[in-house]
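Researcher: For the annotation table, I need structure tokens for Transposase IS200-like domain-containing protein. Please keep the output clean. Sequence:
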Amino acid sequence: MILNDAGKITEYWWRRIPEHYPGVQLDAFAVMPNHLHGIFHAGHSGEQREPGSQQRLDFQKVSKLGRIIAYFKYQSTKQINSFGNAPGQKVWQRNFYENVVRDEKSLNAIREYIAKNPRQWEFDKENPMRTWRSAPGQNAAPSEP
């Protein structure tokens, strides 16, 4: 994936998250033309936990996740709009999708998905340059009327 200016700004602000939120560690991520995939660990500094061990959902951490994403979206949107001279232009969708990773196997599968996702852009239904070929292992798209 070759990033345009908005993509470079997005990557810049994603990489700044740990500077604003100590204790957050970035993992795999991929900036796509219309979204971002990213993993980060948002535990307390030095917090160690065995992969796969059961942990109750901590609503303070869920709230922290929302603050982290809001900070990232705000900063990146502000700079993208400033760069494009388009104040107030919407950049991100209202919410975000999250997945709590519970074990090392799931973490590795998500990392692999993120690493392979840019190669799947050609087949994404939101790609305006998409061909009607299907991605390997998927059914072909219906023929056009």
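Researcher: And a one-line annotation?
Model: Confidence is low (pLDDT under 50) at residues 44-57, 139-145.
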